[in-house]
Amino acid sequence: MALKALDIFKLLPKTNCKKCGCPTCLAFAMKLAQKQTSLDQCPDVSEASKVELAGAAAPPIRLVTIGAGPGKLEIGNETVLFRHEESFYHAPGIGVMVSDALDGTALKARIEAIRKLKFVRVGLSMQANVVAVVNASGQAAPFAKAVQAAGTLDLPMVLMSSQAAHLNTVLAMCADKKPLIHAATDATADAFIALAKTHNCPLAVTAPNLDKLVPLVEKARAAGIQDIVLDVACPRVPDTLQALTAIRRLALKKNMRVLGYPCLVTNSTVDPLVNVAECGMFVAKYAGIVLAELDQPEQLLPLLTISQNLYTDPRKPIQVEAKLNAIGAVTPDSPLMITTNFSLTYYTVAGEVEASRVPAYIGVLDTEGTSVLTAFASDKLTSEKIAAFLNSDEVKSKVSHRKVIIPGYIAVMSGSLKEDSGWTVLVGPREASGISKFLKTTWTNT
């Protein structure tokens, strides 16, 4: 059982030295009990206390690293069931499976397709961030060839084979890249555990249900394997979802350390649209790695978007810099629009301005990463703040006219803004989709 805050406090030095960043040892104990900090933040704790506190200090779900270098993938170390309770921290690996049964031309095409799965959304870069090589041929040579080809992607790898000998052959080539070995079963556990220990790589274990999975995990742990990934190979999607949820609940709510590891899901549904929908569900509940044969941009982008949305800290919205931005070949007579520094809002507006082909300025105000309506309702987007921006040297040096376009949702502000700034205020469309028409008609007729 996890220790409570008072139990932890009794084992701390009680000096209130503040070296841990907390005002008191009791405050540190409370954060440690809630998995919000780690024991190593206390420099004065005794060795005896460290041993006793090890269970309380360890995260409920272990952080497992796959790959090496700057592109490594870190999964696990989650602390809540639902994002609104706190936050999700480590986005899942989303990647493509590559079969070694593909001929040379098809293999090259698959690798190049994966290489192109890179996108920019709300100013952030994202991509397929893991690749799995499947030993579908059942032979060592094609497997090694496919692994070598996948290695050119510089992505964390999952090596999927039922043959320990084949895995040992390819691990001799790429063990330094710390690939995930997939997957130890009841029949192959001893050989796969030996591989993981020899090559110092993380190990996936798989079983058809939790009752059979737990002994496998215990066996790997007893052998000294620390980095483990769980693969509950359920034949039906609802069963997989149920298993993922059960593992998360048991790890967080029941403190079952034997299930305190990230999970991996492979999805082989033939219909790509259904496959995308199912994979999206796995991203949300609660896979650490999602693998499929989807290799087209329109198939991967929805999954990466779901992941980006879920794994953004709700307490720290994605923001852009508050400043005057120029879209297109602007002149001093170009229109000036106002919006907030919430990334999704800004890039939506910027995209519509670009699509209109009307060069324009976008004045971005610091609203602490909130949307237009939220910022207006919380007094983070006020007429006084907009007026100060309009009369700033930054705007005066680039805009010669005194006309400003505000979002339609804050039309009620137009009167006070005109009074505070002395500018002519034009009320723009309520939705970004109306920006193009507005710039081509209303603006040009002013």
> What is the assigned CATH homologous superfamily of the largest domain?
Dihydropteroate synthase-like
CA(first)-CA(last) distance: 70 Å
Total beta strands: 17
What share of residues is helical?
A: 40-55%
How many domains make up the 3D coordinates?
3
Q: From the helix content, strand content and strand pairing, which structural class follows?
A: alpha/beta
Oligomer: single chain
Biggest sheet record: 8 strands, parallel
Strand order of the largest sheet: 10-9-8-7-6-3-12-11
Number of H- or I-type helical stretches: 17
Low-confidence stretches: none
Shape: globular
Radius of gyration: 27 Å
Instruction: State the CATH class of the largest domain.
Output: Alpha Beta
Average residue pLDDT: 93
Strand content is 15-25%
Under CATH, the topology of the largest domain is which? Answer: TIM Barrel
CATH architecture of the largest domain: Alpha-Beta Barrel
